[in-house]
Specification:
The structure is a single chain. With 199 residues, the protein is mainly alpha-helical. It folds into two domains: 48 residues, no CATH class; 123 residues. 52% of the residues lie in helices and 8% in strands. The protein contains seven helices and two strands; from the N terminus they run αααααααββ. Strands 1-2 form a two-stranded antiparallel sheet. A hairpin with a 2-residue loop joins β1 and β2.
Length: 199
Amino acid sequence: MCRHNSKIEVCLVNARHCKNLPGRKTDVSDCQWLQYLHSVGLLRASFRPPEQICVVRSFLRQRANLVRYVSQQVMQLHKALTQMNVQIHNVISDIVGVTWLAILDAVLAGERDGHKLAKLKDHRIKVSADVIARSLVGDWRAEHLFALRQALATWRHYQQLLTEFALFIVLLPFFSQQNSTFVTSIFLGSGHLELVKVV
């Protein structure tokens, strides 16, 4: 496979464009026939974006994957709560909002009193504490609590990855490839940002 910075012009051809063209279908004759078709301009090269666009496209695909993983964990949180007959999602729609996360952390820490859990609601929530408390009545089965704990931990992990991704994108233009300096990874810990570079 040719490198992008080589002097050879590489054409990526869709095989469907050659399917209806005449020619012998053996390995050697097929290669010769394709070479001839290319030499007379009968093969159309597929679009290959420039290197800079390929880099951006790879980043966007990675971010799309992370967003999809986050959505999957939100659905797992919703499923675990539904299986425990906890209907708070009918009262507070944002399952990963400030109030939701505070209540989930308290539940996983062992708190089961609905009125105490309702006091954790954010001041912007208009629903009364009594309504929230009634929606938090469930059976709290151990297997569903285990699934809830794992889904919440995984959701927070992917949120951390999305934060690192955003920082990486912001800092990427400040590192040029001309001086062979490039950011390889970003670590968030103890409230500070650490950049790992290769020179």
